[in-house]
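Changelog entry: the Helix-turn-helix transcriptional regulator record was regenerated in this release. Current contents:
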Amino acid sequence: MTMLVFTVPPLLQYIACGHSIFDPGERHMSRRNLHVFDLLFVQKGCLYIGEEERRYEVGPGCALVLRPDCFHYGLEGCRERTEYYWLHFQTSGPWTAADDDAGELHPDNAADELFDVRSFPLTLPQFVRLAKPAKADELLGQLDQLHPNAHLSAARLKQQLLFQELVQLLAASQDSRRNSPGRACAERAAALLRSRYREDITVRELGKRLSFHPVYIARCMQREYGCTPREYLLRYRIEQSKLLLMQTDWTIARIAEEVGFRQAPYFSTCFSRLEGITPREYRQLFH
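Regenerated structure tokens:
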């Protein structure tokens, strides 16, 4: 299965949509370098579409996203009356196409959780049978009805909001990806590390608590978060220390102990390595 992986923010941007009906024998037009993503959702009948060397039969309740950088064309005419919605959208951020989970874009772990906008990967299946086709039909119908008022700011905002709900629906339909054992393992490990960050938790103890081998946990977290469990815990501790540096007048030693460091000098070394300044210099930025 081909996945489209977008780095967000920025959010995907709705452009336009419409409703089309093909009689038997009519086929989807051929286009190259469309410069936008073209989402097709079939209500009745079937569309036979090719994109480069890939072939799709888009039946009722199915959605296909045609890429802006590929040649797509009608493979054959419809065999029956076919009704479908089309929707154009775009992104101003980076994106990639990958088979299954390969090539996922990791979140921006270098960003400051308190002040920076953190990027994360949004993965959409290029072709999928929607888990809730009736809801997709409803959302696309509302978007289509808003078209006559698209010159109004309120209508444009409503369109973007409806489109983001549709994007969530597409993402949720890729059950095999979202509920993969590797992702579930990484998320459980991250949740445990966040809840026990003050403790001296080891990778072996993490493995016992999750009932997984530490090497498997590390591989899963590297895939999902771009770092090992130890690195994830260190970054989270530093983020918590930054809150205390801003909000309290505690000593550096006390803050180090509060967030799980046994020795203040080691805490200062780790803080400086990740933030580029010492804890004391960071505090002075806000006092």
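The first helix runs from residue 133 to 145.
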